[in-house]
Queue: 3 jobs
Job 1
Amino acid sequence: MVPNMFQSILKYKKYRYLKLSLLSVLASYILYLSQGSSQPANGGTLQGYILGIFATFLVLLLASLGIRKRKYSSNLGKLQGWTSAHIYLGTSLLLIASFHAAFQVGWNIHTLAYVLLLAVIFSGFYGLYTYLHYPRVLSINNTGGTQNTWLEEMGEVDDKIKAQASSCQIEMRLFVLSALKNTILSGNFYPQLRGKDLSKIREQSNKKLIPNKNQQRIIDAIATAIPQSMNQAESGALNQLLTLFSRRQRLLKIIRRNLQVRAYLKVWLMFHIPLTVALMAALIVHILVVFIYW
Amino acid sequence: MQDGRYKVVIIGSGPAGLSAAGRAAFYDNKSPDSQKTHLLLESFSSPAKTIYQYQKGKHVMDEPGFLALRSPMSFVAGKRENVLDNWQQGINKNQINIQFNSEVVKISGEYPQFVIQLKNGSSIQSENIVLSIGLQGNPRKLGLENDAESNFVRYTLEDPDEFEDKTVVVIGAGDAAIENALGLARNNKVHIVNRRNEFNRAKEGNLNAVLTAINNKSNQFYCQYNTNVKAVNLPDENNENGSIVLDTPEGDLEIACDCIIARLGAIAPRRFVESCGVKFPNDKPTSIPDLDNNYQSNVKGLYIIGALGGYPLIKQAMNQGYEVIEFINGNEVKPADHPLLEQQFKLLPYAMDAQKVLDLYQQRVPMFKRMNALAFRELIIESNIVIALDAEAYQETSITQKTALTSGFDKLTNLIRSGDYIFKQGNYSNSFYTIVEGSVELIKDGNKKFTLKAGQFFGEMSLLSGRPRQASAIASDDCILIETPRKIMAKLMNSNDEVADGINRVFIMRALQTAFNPKLPPKEMNALAGTIELVEFKAKQVIYNQKEIGNELYLIRSGTVSLSKGTEGNKLVTYQLQSGDLVGQMALMGNSTRQHTAEAAVRVEALKINKQQFLKLVQSNPSQIKVLQAQLSQKMKKSNSIGSVVEASKTIKFLLDEGLGEATNALIINENLCVNCDNCETACAETHGGISRLDRETGASFDGLHVPISCRHCEQPHCMKDCPADAIHRAESGEVFIDDSCIGCGNCETNCVYDVIKMSYTLPKKPGLFSWMFLGLGNGPGEDLDAKINPKDKELGKKAVKCDACMDQKGGPACVRACPTGAAIRISPNDFVNLVDGT
């Protein structure tokens, strides 16, 4: 449910920036079509230059979002408006830049700038997708809780597991504690992104760490041990442990998924921003080259 | 002594009596004959019984700080022992004629021939009598079964160290209760029971100490607020299994304890005083005898000073002792706080002594007329005097004002231009105004509503409900107002029932006027208002249940009420109502079966209006019925529309459960739009000295709506109570903020039930954005958790920080402005319905 007091970035101010972008594309297209009487469509015609200047202006405007975002006292519009404009004007740049280049490509610095522009825009599209899609995924995954509440609960569950484990036989106890010790929440950014569970467990018989993905190994071991237990106290503890590890399994899933989705929400910026910097550099060279070889 | 008759006999050797006797002794010592014309009678075996009975080592305070001491006896704040030693020395040095173990049983005769009878049968004659017997006589009882003084139930505590490893319940919120509780807390587990929700009767030092003790989680020191004592269960023969049952906002609570110490104040030894012919203004137990400015009662020659006269502070009592002897000796003397009053009245157009102005003002205002002259004096000293002048006079007077301000005056009369707004509708200011001269116009929605004249007051709605001003107030020419801060008014209402009743009565009349617009003559209206009951509901308390037969409606005075349908477990909240709204009017306007269950979302105060009262109100102005009907249909439409969407009603329930019913401006995040970038937190830190006042992630969520940990700017801010430095204010536009006078005590952090205040050092200034972006200086925008605190800031200590809703930021709240996806918005309870409507 998106209550009507909220506006999504796409619908911001009744699609104000979509309308603006469509207008810009339309104007650029007319300008593009108006070429060709004396010279074929090209970046070097008068229209080509105008389109080039306009595209450069747009690139600068779009890049300045990075500054505006960090100017926290700025009264120059709401950041949401800037983001909405960034999306629509960025998309329109795809066409405007193409009109400027008149769809000519080659193995040169000009096409490099064009390709970088496309890369920036498409990484932005992926970013937009993540922004539109993943917040809901996160919200559903969290079911009203937060990463901190899950981590806190994990701590409590682990304490209870340790307490229950003390009533088990030594072998099971060590196995349980090893499962706790060798649980890997996330690791670095890449494993976070992959959401892969690298948790391990040490089997006392061969002293080697073996995978304990999804806590499955330990859950299986406890479930197997329950019917075999002769001791009533231990059997009770094992039952408790099974319940606790099931909860732990669920918590780990939620936490890992949170980390993964948050990584998705960030990872595209790792392309989008460096590509933008590269684009700016290429753009400067492109402009210089054009003027030098006038 | 002449003809066996003293000039003055002072009864009671407390601070007031000692000081009076000291001054009288001064005159005796000065006179050539060695005759003593004064006598100080004390029923106990040593002077200052009350202080003598204080616990050992108790710190005696010398509030109020602004007041100078004028007495032959010395007194400075310090240990009980030092204070008593000083006084003993004073008695010797001044050669005070003191007679111990002399309890007075009867006073007869009249000026100048009073006869004082002592318990031992002897009698003494005197021209004048000064009664300074204090209030300690009769401690107030619990008023329950089993409340007789015993080892288990006590009304005094001499030595807290006689208790060790016990559980003790201390009842009361005054200084005595706090001091006992703190003394006991050294070696025992202590519960302190406060009938109210703050310790606003306590002296500043005690207030700080008790709150520090409550804040300190490692102490076994607990406070029960808003709690009354329901029952006392005496222990068995072995002194075991005693307990106390408390009526708390969360329900009954039984605490097993070893001892109950009730410090509920004392009742004036009224019967004795009355037997001397002294009259009291009413029958209320808190009533104080009528005194003139020279502390003389209605019995000529009989003076009453100190706590018995309504002033319980030591310094004031001692000053009164001095002043009363001066008066008896025929010397005009101005009270010690006289210069303060002079400053406040300085710019008023009177050539009158400040005392005369004070008397005049008290007579002008019916509500204050019967107040003790001394209490009124204190009220004025704590208030501002405001005068509205025409342009020319304003110009002239403001020059005088400027000169005076530069020459050391610090509390001058306030000036405004006539025709100026005193406050505007929608403002959140909450001073209380009393008109002493001229008139004030109240204007609601552009229409003139009332003209108030001298003697009337206004601002009671905001004072009582915590909501914005319901109307604008404009001052007329030469209008003079007493502007009393909310804190002082709340204190006065707590300690003076007459003022509380007066304000409540007018509140009821005006609230009825606003809600029903009746056309009743003022007399009838007043009589009707007198019959209306003011009721209070705790948070989560049911006001009425669905399907009940209802005979009354409620007009909300403060708090939020939720309406719901269905039974527990399957309850659908369909509406919420705030102060000024009517609840349950449908039962009186058609179907008498309640259609909803009404529940208090937070603590609610409401006026209960029954059928007869309602009919009287609406029948006096039948055209209003249409208006009420239209309001009701509007409410029914909305409520049914929400009720038809299960999700919407669950969301409202969630928001109310999160306490947003008392919010005025809360941050809400739509989880389906939030990309977890934390730019809101960064923006908050960047616009507020590097410290974020919001925690985005923590906090509850429901169905995609998230309530982060961030200030909601409550209607009646919990943080504002018990701020000793008076550093927390509410801006006219509603923001609750902390100013630079914060002393870092942490009371607000403790009192905030939403955990949105934190204590923090001032952080060093960070390198600018471009230095970070291009030179890599600093850690970039946002809160720097590893910031190195300047030694100077460390010394100043941590101060309380909280959201101020960016009141100084032009564009409004930075958190909302900085959200790239529009997930963050700020809402008030009025928006809840919009928030869920039309989804």
Job 2
Amino acid sequence: MRTALVSVMVACVVLASAGCGGETTQATRVDMPVGADGTGLVEFDTDEGYSVQLHAVDMRVERVEFTVGGEAHNDEQAWHQQLMRRVVGEAHAHPNHSAGGEVGGELPGPVVFQWRPDEFKEVGAGDFLEADYAGYNLVFPEAPVDESDGESLAVELMARLEGVADNGENAVEFSVDVDLADASTIFGGALSGAIAGDDVAAVGLQFLPFDEWSGRSIFDEVDFSALSVDDDGIAQIPEGSLAYIHIRLALTSHEHYGGRLLEDDDL
Amino acid sequence: MVALVAVQLTSMSAHADDGDGEEQETGLVVVTAEPTARENPSDAALSRREIDAVGARSAQDILRSLSGIQLSQHGSEGKAAQFFLRGFDAAHGTDLTVNVDGLTLNEPSHVHGHGYADVGLVIPEAIKSVRLRKGPFDLDQGNLSTAGDITYELGVPQALRGTAVGVEGGLPGRGRIWTYDAPVDGNERDVVAGEVVADRGPFENRQTRRAGILGQKTLGDWRLRGGVQAAEFGLPGALRYDDISAGHISPDTTYTPDTTGRTGQIWLGTVHERSDDDWSHRTSLDMRARQFDGNENFTGYLFDEEHGDASREFQQGAMLVLSHRTQRVLSDNWSGVIYAGSSVDVFRQFADAVDETGVAYDRDWGGRALQGALYVAPGLSGFVGDHLQLEGGVRLEGLFFDFREDELLGTEQGREALAVVAPRMRARVFVGNNLVIVGAAGRGYRGPEARVFAGDESAPADTDLRQHRGGEPAVTAIDAAELGIIVNPSQWLELSAGAFAYLASGEYVYDHVSRVDVDLGATRRLGAEAAAEVELSQQYRMRGHLTVVDAHFRDSGDAIPFAPPVEGGITGLARWSNGLFSGVEWRGVGTRPLPFGAKAAPWALWNAHLGWERDNLQIRLNVDNLLDTSWAEGVYHYASHFDRSQPISTLPSVHQVTGHPRMFRLQLSYRW
């Protein structure tokens, strides 16, 4: 009896030792094209009574981070419950402390997204870990500081929007350049779906000038008819103007960014 | 019936048998415990004899020989270990409390980790026994005992009493000197011990230097106890697995050769115990002051390309703990018990961003806090008939917090009180003389850290709700149950087996690096465990255990990362009449799940020792990792950026803390 029991225990050790020969394996990576999905550039109305159609939106970003939701993310919670939840800062990685949701994919940059109506324009190759994704972040470069006066300086154009606004009486062709250099990061662009294997052909990020959920548009409180027009007949929105500030504020809100996982037929 | 009552009281006491086969006072009656007698199938205990057989490097190292628990050291001796138990990644003590004679060592709001349990104060030669209870099934288990608790009992058993001194030398460069004095005619709990350790460590920046004194003295109904300890140690961080695989870095080195830590603590306490025929009481009052100062960099230059991501964490504080237990016989079959107590912890903590030379250039966060607890836990225990023993009660605990943010950062202040009701119950069915069936259920809980209460009241616009969403500060309640058996089919064999379950509707874990209270959602852990102890003859003994657990998040079905689904171990010990003794230990951990489907390799280690003892003189050789197996003691998954010639990637990757290679230690001791 004793011999048999010891034999069993020793056999267990031998078997277990044999089973302990595996290797550490990294998460499976998927390379996936990421591009500007122009299906969001549809005609929309503003609170000033204009019907706006954007023809082109260009935006330069330092990189794009794609995020998983973490275990706490579920659809059962109302928005106000989510809002009330405490978020204090960004979690830095540390052993054992990153299980609540984190970056699982990225598009290194800098890159320029060029949204055109109903077009998909590839921007670059994204690097993804296989996972269910719940959103993305647009990261902008920090603006350099002019040491002479300590103020932020915009070193280059970050976003340009072109389109036509029509209030039924007057159609205004317009263009606006927006400096997003110190916008840092736009968190929480909406993107939902699993990226694994060959099921997805590309990731399309959408610019959504009108947010269905809030009913707000990116040109709310902008009176296009009051804008000055340049020599080419294009209305300009000068930096520092009230309209510019409204547009810049809206541009840095996650509610104007969506996304889709595209199949071959979508491209 | 007296014997049965004794069993009852023993099972409800915080101080159970020492597992050493020697007489022990329970406060009411004296019982004699068999060497391997256990109250519950899931319990694990080591007597002093078994502790000595382990030949551990430290009090923390002893815990590796308890069945069902795994430890990972991602710093060096001196830093608290990371604990894994029953599908819990208990971090540095988030879900597991560690006690010395009833004093909890966990710091509920430590700067480095929720429930940080530094056992550096404990000296192996001053321990009479160590016991692991799994599950929150006993009334004396408080905050942070969600997965279980560990108790070191101070003292020296009669057979080893006297004065002893020992010296240990090891490769690649270790020296340890220890001594204890335990008067032969004194109480078994009385001991004064000291140790000095200097160790270069197996790898770069894994060195440690530490020293301590620990003691206890009985004076009538009173006991005085206390200790002082200091440590200085390397904090090497972790290595990227892809760098190791590609040969870019050796697994025995570090990215951060200069990051170190220091700790120090002082403990002073007293215990008063009295009993008569119908009642007993035990009251203890302890003060423990401690300091932690550590500089670590796990992520390289990911967040700050110029200075690097090194962070200096500092904590200084003092804790006052009062605890009381009264037991009373109510009738022939029933007895009652009340646990009550409180604790107050006052501390200052901060985390500074530091550059490569350790100079601080920014304060990430910091503050001062007062945190406390107040509890009462009444219970009953008794027999229904001759074969069914029942015990149960409810623990009511209030936790209060007052946190004030560092004046350098702002003026945020948070004050809050939380309460928890935790019922606990257990039933034992005695079938004949050789079989006990034990079922238990209970609620464990984990209070939040103090600093979470100084956070914003609501999420600012356009913050990352998806990536790292916080949660309202709350007590995490985890309901648990287990069912098991202990069988003694003969004098030479004890078998135990059981199944367990833990259910949490929502686990909140405080991410101490980011100050984010992370809601991890609902979890479940289902598992089984078995253990066997065989006395083959007077010379040979074997024991082994195996734990299998399925731990998942309930919403996603994803595995709970880092916690091992399978772990086990077998130990064989031999002792011959000519004074020779030897032992061999095997420990193994199965493949562990990591986030995003990554997996940590399984590992299995052999340790062995050979020694000779005669006339109180002992000499022994320990070989740790006998087969020089390559293994990763800690495996983690996060983003980092150490190679500054490469572009930054925010994608998480596997990192590892390399396990030690084969190491030799020669020990010599003499007792008189």
Job 3
Amino acid sequence: MIDVQEVGRTFTIRRRTGLLRRERRVVHAVQNLSFTVRAGEFVGYLGPNGAGKSTTIKMLTGILAPSSGRIQVAGLDPARRRTALARRIGVVFGQRTTLWWDLPLRDSFELIRHLYKVDRVAFRRRLDELTELLTLGEFLRTPVRQLSLGQRMRGDITAALLHDPRVLVLDEPTIGLDVVSKAAMRGFLRKLNAERGTTVLLTTHDMGDIEKLCDRVMLIDNGRLAFEGGIDDLRATAPEETSIEDVVARLYARGAPAAGQRQARGQ
Amino acid sequence: MVRTYALLAWTWMRASAQYPVSLALLTLGSLAVNALDILAIWVIFSHTTTLGGFALPEVMFLYGTAGVSFAVADMLFGNVDRLSTHIRSGGFDIMLIRPAAAFLQMAVDRFNVQRFGRITQAAVVLGLALAGLEVPWSRAWMIPVMIVCGVVIFASIFAIAGATQFLLINAPEVANAFTYGGSSLTQYPLTVYGSELVRAVTFVVPLAFVNWQPALLVLGRDDPLGLPHWLRYASPLAAVALATVAMLAWRAGIRRYRSTGS
């Protein structure tokens, strides 16, 4: 469902070092990255800040074009077939909303129905279903700006699923959520994956998400794939550690920062 | 395309209606600014009878045609030159994950109706000018043609201004020189400017084709600067050429898009 072959993405940073002198530096945000995600899988994508997670997500969704290599998502090349791909995948960014800030949630959904050309009957059925599963009912008429973070997040997930995508890409969907909302969100995602067979790729810094949801984990560091395998394989990399958080911390530390490279991505 | 645009425009109109006081103040503000524009022309003609060799109704004709073209282009596409703000906030990423052209979403973003007031205002000036001019039908056909071409030219300039911001994220003001600058420039007969500038806006940034050249035809005038006669029919050509450049620039920009940090 997702196929990434030897993908690289470089950024050229220009910095003024003197009055006329300019320094050019090439930063490899992602290099020689290859992985596949099969249909129906639930895969966690881990990595420290600045490791290349977001760059990868942006390449998978067609926001950024890769500098080298080949990507296929749901049978399409994301950068070339961006709008066609948008109808086949759902994307949720935990840190920013895709909803219309000043409109009631319901109106945002209606607008998404038009943009994605979902037919009225299918839309109604799907919205009712999601409303029930995510208990959206009571705030469908509330403007998005007045929603709490947890409510807004549920709204965003719904928005990403109204067109029934085959692949769901989640970039830190549980960031900032309280324990109860987090548990509800995880329960929903697990069900979605199990019952509808939706393929899910999730980035997170919350190890609970990884333990409770993912069949498989990929860990990226300094733009390269540093680990790939099941949760048990992940544990086996540091058998002396008891919590998964410590195991991952070790893996992050192992591929310790090649200094400048990491901070350079935050520009 | 048109349907998606209309739908999103309606959405933004409803969204801005959520803040009625702000909406009212913005409308008043834009009315006042445009009234000053017209006042300036009136002040000039209270001291002289011609401007750059053109009488009041003729200047009003130039003002009106450029004004209508610019106001329509600004209402429909004006937001495109605010691309850098959307890139920095990450909002542009969101547009890229939706199944609609990014240019269209960018153009319609924060669509506001008070810009419609500007169109009406310019149209009134144009109407008054035509009442005082008595243009024969054999030349009047050019008026709708030049307005449409003007819209396309200004829209293309907005698009190019937006496209440059893929590269120059920190310099949106450079773009304003061409968009709003171009609008002010075309409000007066080009004869009031130096001939080098006229050549530049004829052959480099084709602003002279928004209203100046076709207006020479409508008004039945010889070119005071002696440029070839056929140029007055060349507006559609200039519009298509500039639109092509704009489209290529926008595409090249999207390909080079780098997004932001997180």
